[in-house]
Design brief:
Structural class of chain B: mainly alpha
CATH superfamily of the largest domain in chain B: RNA polymerase sigma factor, region 2, helix turn helix motif
CATH class of the largest domain in chain B: Mainly Alpha
Oligomer: heterodimer
CATH architecture of the largest domain in chain B: Orthogonal Bundle
Structural class of chain A: mainly alpha
Order of helices and strands of chain A: HHHHHHHHH
Radius of gyration of chain A: 28 Å
Number of strands of chain B: 0
Strand content of chain A: under 5%
Order of helices and strands of chain B: HHHHHHHHHH
Distance between the termini of chain B: 46 Å
Shape of chain A: flat
Distance between the termini of chain A: 56 Å
């Protein structure tokens, strides 16, 4: 017969001693968040677009299977020397995936800057804007460093975004109205939001780039 | 804002909501990762990978458990994988039956109860340790532990009971300190 589990809690002295075992220090929240952003962007940039690779890979696999079956079923199992067609499977240009990542990033940045502009009218810009700006800045710079991103319009936009995001990231708790005004003026002068909206294709929001319809 | 509202905003691509979700859960995830790995670098690595994975899979989160429990399940799996990778898992996975009493007499300097408890916990079988850490140290319920570890609630209760019993056994020689 199975023994019923003893539900009695651990003695207070033992529990107290156990609590001090591997007592975690405070979580390094900002450092970890920056690293999470870096890892997510790196994964998005690395991830191949299987939908685009699917057809060429499928066709190549079928041809290879056909050749294999042909050779195997040749009379006497002898390998009949046939000219082997060379199938050059061109990987889908990386531009497709990088464009999708860039569009997602621009879409998020556009939402962020719109929210920032609205908050700028209030007396105090909330703290979280600086933190979010740092995350977006990291992604902006990763995209700027991606050689496969060749669209000159997007590159120019990213450069302007970098300047704006740096300014927002440097806002402190005691941000002065002057600082905020400089940023909103920069947004206006560089025509950032209208350019963002015309660059992002219709429907190319975060959901689109995740492959949802 | 509820978890469901937060998730909906994250899925809409709201960067601020992503940060808010992270802020709401990071401490709990990090604490568990730290307790399970006992290593600053591994704990950070597990926490980061937990959130990377969670954001990637958030669209598939059905809400059958709480978001916190779901994150905890990912974190637990990440922590065990990390330990396996670093081979520390094997070193610590000592068969409990073969473990000598951590309170072996005759040492030059006798460690205090906290040290003895630390040694006992290090030697506890990983399954027992996970349940003990989650329930007694981090305050998870048996239902949450069941979901996170993929075990029945009753199994969680039984493992906790056995974990406590093992700890008492290993510290029996110094019962005067705690009885």
């Amino acid at each position: 017969m199975m023994e019923a589990p003893d539900d009695s809690p651990l003695e207070p002295e033992l529990l107290d001693a156990a609590r001090s075992w591997r007592e975690p220090p405070p979580a390094p929240r900002d450092e970890m968040w920056r690293e999470i952003g870096r890892r997510r962007t790196a994964r998005r940039l690395r991830r191949p677009d299987w939908r685009k690779l699917g057809w060429p890979l499928g066709i190549a696999a079928l041809i290879a299977l056909g050749i294999g079956l042909g050779r195997w079923s040749a009379p006497g199992g002898r390998v009949v020397p046939l000219p082997v067609p060379t199938v050059a499977v061109q990987p889908a240009p990386d531009n497709n995936s990088i464009t999708a990542v860039a569009n997602e990033h621009l879409s998020r940045t556009e939402a962020f800057l719109t929210e920032f502009r609205a908050a700028a009218h209030s007396a105090q810009v909330p703290d979280h804007f600086a933190a979010t700006s740092r995350d977006l800045l990291l992604e902006t710079r990763l995209l700027m460093d991606a050689p496969s991103l060749q669209d000159a319009r997007v590159r120019s936009l990213l450069q302007d975004l970098e300047v704006i995001l740096v300014q927002i990231a440097q806002l402190h708790n005691d941000n002065r109205p002057d600082d905020v005004e400089i940023i909103t003026n920069g947004l206006k002068q560089r025509d950032v939001l209208p350019r963002l909206r015309t660059t992002i294709p219709v429907g190319a929001d975060a959901r689109h780039s995740r492959g949802e319809s | 804002m509820t978890d469901q509202e937060l998730i909906a905003r994250v899925l809409d691509g709201d960067a601020a909501a992503e940060r808010a979700l992270y802020e709401a859960h990071v401490d709990r995830v990090y604490r568990m990762a730290w307790r399970l790995t006992g290593d600053a670098h591994l704990a950070e690595d597990c926490t980061q990978d937990t959130f990377v994975r969670a954001f990637e899979r958030l669209a598939g989160f059905r809400g059958e458990s709480s978001l916190s429990t779901w994150l905890c399940a990912i974190a637990h799996s990440m922590a065990l994988n990390a330990l396996r990778k670093t081979k520390r898992f094997r070193e610590r996975e000592t068969d409990l039956e073969l473990v000598p009493d951590v309170a072996t007499p005759g040492r030059k300097s006798e460690p205090d109860l906290k040290e003895r408890m630390g040694q006992a916990l290090d030697r506890l079988a990983p399954g027992y340790r996970s349940v003990f850490v989650m329930h007694d140290l981090e305050g998870y319920t048996h239902e949450e532990i069941g979901v996170a570890l993929g075990i029945e609630t009753g199994t969680s209760k039984a493992q906790l009971s056995r974990a406590r019993a093992r700890l008492r056994e290993m510290l029996a020689a110094h019962a005067g300190d705690w009885q």
